[in-house]
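Hello forum,

I keep getting stuck at the same step: I have a sequence, I want structure tokens, and every attempt I make locally crashes halfway through. Rather than fight my setup again tonight, could one of you with a working pipeline run this one for me? It's a single chain of 88 residues.
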Amino acid sequence: MYVPSDVRSFSLSTELIKQVKWIDGKPTNEVSGYQAWFVAEGTEPFKVKFSKKINLPEMLSQVTLMNLEACEVGSNVYFKATGVEVTK
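Reply #2:
Ran it on my machine without issues. Output:
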């Protein structure tokens, strides 16, 4: 719905953004995931969370986001995927 599967998607990030777990309003040293930016034709850039560290493709590589899911919370949409694959 938010990112149509029939359009091309591209990687925008050059580095993964590490997310850490928070307890009692304070960050810990525990990594809870990684994020990277992508864009699809006809969409605004969007951030995708990965639970495990992935090999990020070069910037502007055409990609397929594996098992991409969206979650709507209020007026915000959050994305997660299990991996990213470069497509030709």
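The chain is about 0% helix and 55% strand. If your local run keeps crashing, start a new thread with the error log.
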